[in-house]
Write a structure and sequence with these properties.
With 222 residues, the protein is of the alpha/beta class. The chain has one domain: 3-Layer(aba) Sandwich (Rossmann fold), CATH 3.40.50.10320. Helix content is 37%, strand content 21%. It is built from six helices and seven strands, in the order E-H-E-H-E-H-E-H-E-E-H-H-E. Strands 3-2-1-4-5-7-6 form a seven-stranded mixed sheet, with helices on both faces. The longest helix has 18 residues. It starts with a strand and ends with a strand. The relative contact order is 0.17. The model has no long low-confidence stretch (mean pLDDT 97).
C-alpha cells in the first residue's frame, strides 16, 4: 500500500486533472490524501451561501473518492500572490512531512491561473530529496481551462510522458464532477463534461484505451 498526495490550488482541480487515477489508486488499496491550498470566505467577498455550499462540496468529494484525509490550508482563492510564498511553503511542507507520501500529483507549473503557478512552485519547493527522501515520484496533471490557456510558447507546453488507463473509473469520475456544478461549463467550453470526456478519449487513444489521464513526470527515484 502506497501513500499518495494530490495537491489542488482549488477544489475541482483534483477531479478534472486526475480523478480517474486517484480512484484507481484507491481501488488498488493505496491511501490518498488531498491537500487544497486555497479556500473561499465571506471575509474575501464571497457570498455566505456559496461559501457554505463549497465546504459541503469538499466534504462530499472527500467521501465519494474515499480520501484518507483532506487538508485545507485556507489561503484566499484568486489572491494567492498576496501571501508571502515562504508562508505557503511552510504550511505545505508541514503537511507533506506529516503524511510522507510516496507519490505527489500537483498542478501544472505553467497553468495560466496565478494560484496554480504559485501552488506548483510552493509544493515543488517542499520536495527536495534531502528533506523529503520518502518521495519517489512527482507528476504534474493538466487542468482544463487553465493548462491549455497558457500563452502558446514552447516553455509553457504541457508535455505528457505518463498515461494511466482510467477506463474502469471514468464514469465514477464524471459522477464526482457533478458536485462542482457551479464550476462546470456548458458543452463545447473547456471545463464542460463533454470536453473533459473528449480529452480523456484523446489521451486514451495514445495508449490504445477508451479513457486515460496524462501526466508530466518531473521526478522519479529508482
Amino acid at each position: 500500500m502506497k501513500k499518495i498526495m494530490v495537491v489542488s490550488a482549488h477544489p475541482d482541480d483534483e477531479t478534472i486533472g486526475c480523478g480517474g487515477t486517484l480512484l484507481k489508486h484507491i481501488a488498488e488499496g493505496d491511501s490518498v490524501y488531498w491537500l487544497i491550498v486555497t479556500n473561499i470566505t465571506t471575509k474575501d467577498g464571497w457570498n455566505k451561501e456559496f461559501v457554505t455550499k463549497r465546504q459541503k462540496e469538499i466534504t462530499r468529494v472527500t467521501e465519494q473518492f474515499g480520501f484518507k484525509k483532506t487538508f485545507k490550508l485556507n489561503f484566499p482563492a484568486a489572491k494567492l500572490e498576496t501571501i508571502p510564498i515562504g508562508i505557503i511553503i511552510s504550511k505545505i511542507s508541514q503537511i507533506i512531512k506529516s503524511v510522507q507520501p510516496e507519490i505527489i500529483y500537483i498542478v501544472n507549473e505553467n497553468d495560466v491561473h496565478t494560484d496554480h503557478k504559485i501552488t506548483f512552485q510552493a509544493t515543488y519547493s517542499c520536495t527536495k530529496n534531502f528533506r523529503s527522501p520518502f518521495i519517489k515520484r512527482i507528476l504534474m496533471y493538466e487542468c482544463l481551462s487553465e493548462t491549455e490557456f497558457a500563452p502558446a510558447l514552447s516553455r509553457n507546453m504541457f508535455v505528457p510522458n505518463v498515461f494511466f488507463d482510467i477506463s474502469p473509473f471514468f464514469l465514477r469520475k464524471m459522477e464526482i464532477l457533478d458536485n462542482y456544478k457551479s464550476e462546470l461549463m456548458v458543452d463545447n467550453l473547456p471545463r464542460s463534461k463533454s470536453t473533459i470526456k473528449a480529452l480523456a478519449q484523446f489521451r486514451g487513444s495514445r495508449i490504445g484505451k477508451e479513457y486515460a489521464e496524462a501526466f508530466n513526470l518531473i521526478f522519479e527515484k529508482s
